[in-house]
């Protein structure tokens, strides 16, 4: 066990000021991919891995950032929070600060140290995790009284406007609102949500990281967003809708011929059907029908592969190999795609076999090993007491 507070004291000077601790998880999306920015449904949950933040106020205008995971230490003035490519991970918490300042909140100097155990660049939302860790910490430290949904929106704005990644609301929402042993059905249009207990009846969620570098992810992500907007404009000539997420499967089938480009039609098809699958999956889970839930995961992956075209050889291989194993009910890519992770539903008794065989077969085909994580479903971002540090 590493005691973050003593690490913190090693890095920063001694001070009488109290050190406060905060925790913020990563997330995995069970189903509902590339639907959030289309105003559709998603069904993510927070993980029991995440980011710790130890923070205390200073009595000057300096803001100091450090991380147990990276060597970089950053010093800024609270009056000059600007994006800097070299400052890498620190741009996420800096972005949250900047948006809070833009909204008129007064923040003085502080020093913060982060420590995380979410694999980086794996598509498990390490960036949303650090954003929300910063947001809840600042909210508490400066008694800003901002509610969680607003902290979530502020964190998303930090990522969109300060870091320049055009993500939807899903990651920040799951990280902020997560609840132990529950997934969240979220309507990304209205932000209405409900918790659904993840009663997995002898099955486990296994996350497999392709370990592929996510190179083109951002440009392809934006390309998909543009294609969706184009598809929406075709359908708006006959339907009174603001987002693709409002379109039913019936209306899609009735009017899809209005979408002239085949590629754009396929993108819209994915969004409309995936949205529908989320509701079916939630129903299946509530009815304790894990077989059906697993099938919907499989259908989701097929649609992301064939119609949305965001998978790639590595993700497809992981899913194909997973589905060959006995005791696997479903498997699909999770997150933006083009790399990152898959999520699979595997029977408890078959987990070790699954890990061994999928690792071997993936390595044989792709040339390097994937990483497997058997995860638990945890709570959203919050203040923690020292005795919770043992979890890290
Ligand atoms: C990334 C984005 C999310 C969402 C997913 C795809 O994780 O950050 O907002 O769009 O991709 O479902």
Rg from C-alpha positions? 21 Å
**Topology, number of strands:** 13
Helix content: 25-40%
List of distinct ligands in this structure = alpha-D-galactopyranose
Oligomer: single chain
Number of domains: 2
On the 0 to 100 scale, the average pLDDT is 95
Count helical runs.
11
Question: How do the strands line up in the largest sheet?
Answer: 5-4-6-3-1-13
Give the topology string: H per helix, E per strand: HEEEEEHEHHHEEEHHHHHEEHEE
Largest sheet: 6 strands, mixed
Secondary-structure content class: alpha+beta
- Unreliable spans: none
What CATH architecture label of the largest domain applies?
Answer: 2-Layer Sandwich
Textual characterization of the structure:
The chain is of the alpha+beta class and 392 residues long. It folds into two domains: 2-197 and 378-391, 2-Layer Sandwich (Ribosomal Protein S5, domain 2), CATH 3.30.230.10; 203-375, 2-Layer Sandwich (Alpha-Beta Plaits), CATH 3.30.70.890. The chain is 40% helix and 21% strand. The protein is built from eleven helices and 13 strands. The chain has helices spanning 4-11, 91-102, 126-141, 148-163, 170-177, 217-235, 249-255, 262-286, 290-306, 313-323, 351-366, and strands at residues 20-29, 41-42, 44-57, 62-67, 74-77, 110-116, 182-187, 193-197, 203-209, 328-334, 341-347, 371-374, 382-384. It has a six-stranded mixed β-sheet with strand order 5-4-6-3-1-13, sandwiched between helices. A four-stranded antiparallel β-sheet has the order 10-11-9-12. A three-stranded antiparallel β-sheet has the order 2-7-8, with helices on both faces. The protein is globular, with a radius of gyration of 21 Å. The mean pLDDT is 95. The chain binds alpha-D-galactopyranose. Residues 33-34, 36-37, 167-168, 170-171, 335-336 line the site of alpha-D-galactopyranose.
């Amino acid at each position: 066990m590493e005691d973050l507070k003593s690490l913190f004291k090693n890095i920063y000077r001694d001070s009488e000021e109290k050190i406060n601790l905060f925790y913020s998880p990563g997330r995995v999306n069970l189903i509902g991919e590339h639907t959030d920015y289309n105003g559709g449904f998603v069904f993510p949950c927070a993980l029991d891995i995440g980011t710790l933040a130890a923070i205390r106020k200073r009595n000057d205008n300096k803001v100091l950032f450090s991380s147990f995971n990276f060597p970089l230490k950053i010093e800024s003035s609270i009056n000059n929070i600007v994006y800097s490519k070299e400052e890498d991970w620190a741009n996420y918490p800096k972005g949250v600060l900047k948006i809070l300042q833009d909204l008129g909140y007064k923040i003085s100097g502080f020093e913060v140290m982060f420590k995380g155990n979410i694999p980086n660049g794996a598509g498990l939302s390490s960036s949303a995790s650090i954003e929300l860790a910063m947001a809840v910490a600042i909210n508490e430290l400066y008694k800003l009284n901002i509610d969680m949904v607003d902290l979530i929106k502020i964190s998303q704005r930090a990522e969109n406007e300060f870091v320049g990644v055009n993500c939807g609301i899903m990651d920040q929402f799951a990280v902020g609102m997560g609840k132990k042993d529950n997934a969240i059905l979220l309507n990304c249009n209205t932000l209405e949500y409900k918790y659904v207990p993840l009663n997995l009846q002898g099955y486990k969620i296994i996350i497999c990281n392709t370990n592929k570098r996510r190179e083109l992810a951002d440009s392809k992500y934006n390309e998909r967003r543009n294609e969706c907007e184009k598809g929406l404009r075709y359908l708006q000539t006959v339907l009174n809708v603001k987002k693709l997420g409002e379109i039913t499967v019936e209306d899609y089938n009735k009017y899809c011929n209005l979408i002239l480009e085949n590629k754009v039609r396929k993108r819209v098809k994915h969004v409309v059907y995936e949205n529908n699958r989320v509701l079916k999956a939630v129903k299946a889970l509530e009815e304790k029908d894990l077989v059906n839930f697993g099938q919907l995961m499989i259908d989701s992956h097929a649609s992301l592969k064939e119609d949305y075209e965001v998978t790639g050889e590595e993700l497809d291989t992981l899913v194909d190999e997973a589905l060959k194993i006995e005791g696997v009910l479903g498997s699909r890519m999770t997150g933006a795609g083009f790399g990152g992770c898959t999520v699979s539903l595997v029977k408890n008794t078959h987990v070790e076999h699954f890990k061994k065989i999928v690792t071997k077969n993936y390595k044989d085909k792709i040339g390097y090993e994937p990483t497997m994580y058997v995860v638990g479903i945890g709570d959203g971002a919050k203040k923690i007491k020292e005795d919770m540090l043992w979890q890290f």
